Amino acid sequence: MEVRSENSIQVRSDKFPSTVIPRTRLQVWFFRVCSSILLWTCLVHIVAVAELWHPRLLTGFTSRISWITRPPLRLQHSLHSPPPLVPSRYYRSNGFLKVSCNGGLNQMRAAICDMVTVARLLNLTLVVPELDKKSFWADPSDFEDIFDVRHFIDSLRDEVRIVRRLPKRFSSKYGFEAFQMPPVSWSSEKYYLEQILPLFSKHKVVHFNRTDTRLANNGIPLALQKLRCRVNFQGLKFTPQIETLGHKLVRILQEKGPFVALHLRYEMDMLAFSGCTHGCTVEEAEELKRLRYAYPWWREKEIVSEERRQQGLCPLTPEEATLVLQALGFTKETQIYIASGEIYGSERRLAPLRAAFPRIVKKETLLDPAELQQFQNHSSQMAALDFMVTLASNTFIPTYDGNMAKVVEGHRRYLGFKKSILPDRKKLVELLDLHQNGTLPWNDFALAVRQAHEKRMGQPFHRRIIPDKPKEEDYFYANPQECLCEGTGCEDVLDPGKSKVTMTAGEQL
Description:
This protein is an alpha/beta fold. It has two domains: 140 residues, 3-Layer(aba) Sandwich (Rossmann fold); 247 residues, no CATH class.
């Protein structure tokens, strides 16, 4: 009599005609788990193939599966699959471009955009850029410490091939040395095609050891101008750590109401570089002068501070910024976020500003010290947090038109011409001096300040072009007009007459 049970296996062979081997519970469990995994794997592949062939074929079925397998709300964001990659561009590379970006975060940001554009123009393979570690702030951050390197590579793969590092055959370990040079500043498409491209035939790898303002503002083909924008507004995404904390800062501020982002560029490096010492003590002025002489790349040494201030070449002091904000109509109830590093003179210089605007905050006061710990001694990462807040602010006001002010201004234009009040410092110094010496009463001073800035609020206008004087013309990244009128007529968007914004007394944000 042959007995079969649920937990047995019947084995037949010539030697053992009929042998029954007991099956353990563990084997049964293992068999069932493997079968389930196999079935689900097959099902997922069938659904994926069906979606690829005909997206609507299994809509009802896949929706039921997603309903069953949908994670809790708190996990959906983290489990969200990334968008599909754009198809990679196929081209024969003419060589490898290695670049070292110099300056602060936003100077490097603009340089990265330019270098991607140059690589596209010359059909080069770009090595992930190196970032400045030798400037005044000596930030040790690498590219991947600030920007999402995988997103950078993947999001631009249809334009440029980007690699993390040079192939081993081009390593110094094997005796190879790249040809190093700084490109000529404000250069055109013709310069790169005629003078730079031939270098790659000879050297295979060219290292641009300075990259600030190496591509012209104007006279560049429209497709390349749009690529500069694409890198800036889409390709350069901050790391998840920076993005998470930046979004938290914005959320905290927005929960308290509208806010102004004041980029108070009154930091030691800026004052030493510009030679501006208005409002400083004699000892502070001497300290700044010694610092200027200590850095060889700050070439201009002998500077007359007051002359430079009268020319509008100095950042507004905290005291001057206080009067200007009040004249523009901001009140004690205005929430102001200070976007900057350490203010020179610290709380002593901030006291008048804080007295006039008690709702002044900084990232250091809004966040727990432990949250900022990972960014300490990394000035570019701290600047990235400020960058995110300035983009989200209701009003942006820079006290100096440095790289951050210009790049933020252009980005806010791209986001829909968000309000940015751009101080006319030369005019303001004149008005401030007249008011402070008693010549200009407060009401007249406030009216004059508002009238001087009616057309300096980030509204659309054409970029100013000055042939043969690229340093004096409008900066591309402050007003990337080629990228601001998708789907509309550029002339309609950029006509100042159709975009006039009038500021009245008491208007806050």
